[in-house]
Design brief:
Number of strands: 9
Organism: Halomonas nitroreducens
Distance between the termini: 7 Å
InterPro entries: Aldlse_KDPG_KHG (IPR000887), Aldolase_TIM (IPR013785), KDPG/KHG_AS_2 (IPR031338)
Family: Belongs to the KHG/KDPG aldolase family.
Keywords: Carbohydrate metabolism, Lyase
Strand content: 15-25%
CATH class: Alpha Beta
Radius of gyration: 16 Å
Protein name: 2-dehydro-3-deoxy-6-phosphogalactonate aldolase
Structural class: alpha/beta
Shape: globular
Helix content: 40-55%
Length: 203
Amino acid sequence: MTLPLIGILRGVTPGEAVAVGEAVLAAGITRLEVPLNSPDPLDSIRRLVDALGDRAQVGAGTVLTVAQVRDVHAAGGRLIVSPNCRPAVIEETRRLAMASWPGVVTPSEAFDALDAGASGLKLFPAVQVGIAGMKAVRAVLPPGTLIYAVGGIGTDNFAAWRAAGVDGAGLGSAIYQPGQSAEQVGDQARTLIDAWQSAGGET
């Protein structure tokens, strides 16, 4: 069973990417995102794909342009996550048969993203939109639309977000911060997964 969680490895370096990625994957999170504002992100993505590509979906976050989508694809990445909604970025991502998770806050952004072919919606920053805001947006979206909360969601509020209808989450500083060992990251990932499952998020 694939958990609806994305491990965000912001700041990871190529030299540690595989060990950290292995730790997150071993804990049970099978989607790994290397934000493009990390050191040498495309190198990290290549290394993760080479080592884990048959067991995990690896890709990039903070993807802002069509050119960046193509760069990630060339590096072997198959997951594109953005902080914003740019239809051209989504369309190119889908043309290349990659998963597309654009960032949205408003209903207009959400519908623009879906019209462009987004795989799901990244509610970002979730702490700004809040649970009430997410429920209001969810009410007007097509049935089956996937919403992942990113930014301000974690062990202390998984249950509230799940009860409100969120489908999954992207986990950043709670799962990895620069300088942490792979062992520490693995422990953090397991803690987050346990909390997610305890909150009723087994699927």
